[in-house]
Specification:
It is globular and about 40 Å long. Helix 2 packs across helix 3. It contains 7 helices and 8 strands; from the N terminus they run βββαβαβαβααβαβα. It has one domain: Rossmann fold, CATH 3.40.50. The longest helix is centred in the C-terminal third of the chain and has 15 residues. The protein starts with a strand and ends with a helix. The model has no long low-confidence stretch (mean pLDDT 90). Strand 5, helix 3 and strand 6 form a beta-alpha-beta unit. By secondary structure, it is of the alpha/beta class. The protein is 31% helix and 21% strand. It has an 8-stranded mixed β-sheet with strand order 1-2-4-3-5-6-7-8, with helices on both faces.
Length: 228
């Protein structure tokens, strides 16, 4: 494991690079709001077992990264890390898998919209941040989406456009981001796309509760989108 400090908007992002020998493929992981670069062990292992190197980082204000944690920094931070992977680690963009988890699916979709990548893997995503917020706080449903501050992370608008191969995995027992968000994303998305619902998984144990289903879906997807 190598540690890097990646500059972003005047701050310093802490990142870990887990290299797989002779692999030309890389997964850049944008973790969830409650996560950090040290608690992605299950996801990182799944990717490494399939011979992808992994680059995972903390947003500004998370973990050891400097600055203040705020949603407005997520996209600039993600772009800085993606560009670091291309310009400093010298990965071909056509071999980079963009991975987003929970709130990290917002920057993942935003980055995949403006940077070339091999595919997009969304774990426990939401259709948009206003929609997810309204699910958590029903009193806010009276407000139209434009009342919510930017970024609104309109994932559903991203998937409606032309995009690289898309894999969506969601736990059926997720109470934080209900699984219907993924169903709506899948329904709205263009091909190529795949949706996998894990029957026993909640929000924080995605994959761990249904490891065979999770692993099988990831193996099939990566076999289609990456060159080995």
């Amino acid at each position: 494991m190598q540690k890097f400090v990646i500059p972003s908007s005047g701050e310093k992002l802490q990142a870990c690079f887990l290299s797989v020998k002779e692999s030309k493929n890389l997964a850049v992981v944008h973790h969830g709001r409650g996560g950090n670069l040290y608690n992605k062990a299950f996801l990182a292992k799944q990717l490494i077992d399939r011979r992808l190197s992994v680059l995972v980082y903390d947003y500004c204000g998370y973990g050891e990264s400097t600055g203040t944690a705020r949603l407005s920094s997520f996209i600039p931070d993600g772009l800085a890390v993606h560009d670091f992977a291309v310009n400093e680690l010298h990965y071909d963009p056509s071999r980079i898998l963009v991975v987003g988890e929970s709130i990290g699916t917002g920057p993942a979709c935003a980055i995949a919209r403006i940077r070339k990548c091999a595919g997009v893997f969304l774990q426990a995503p939401f259709t948009s941040l206003p929609s997810e917020t309204k699910d958590c706080i029903p009193l806010l449903r009276v407000y139209p989406d434009w009342c919510f501050p930017q970024p609104r992370f309109e994932n559903i608008e991203y998937v409606k456009q032309e995009h690289p191969p898309l894999l969506i995995i969601h736990g059926a027992r997720d109470r934080q981001i209900p699984v219907f968000h993924s169903r709506l994303l899948y329904k709205a998305a263009r091909e190529p796309k795949e949706l996998v619902i894990l029957p026993n998984a909640g929000h924080r144990n995605v994959g761990g509760a249904d490891p065979e289903i999770f692993s099988g879906a990831l193996t099939r997807f990566l076999g289609r989108v990456l060159r080995w």
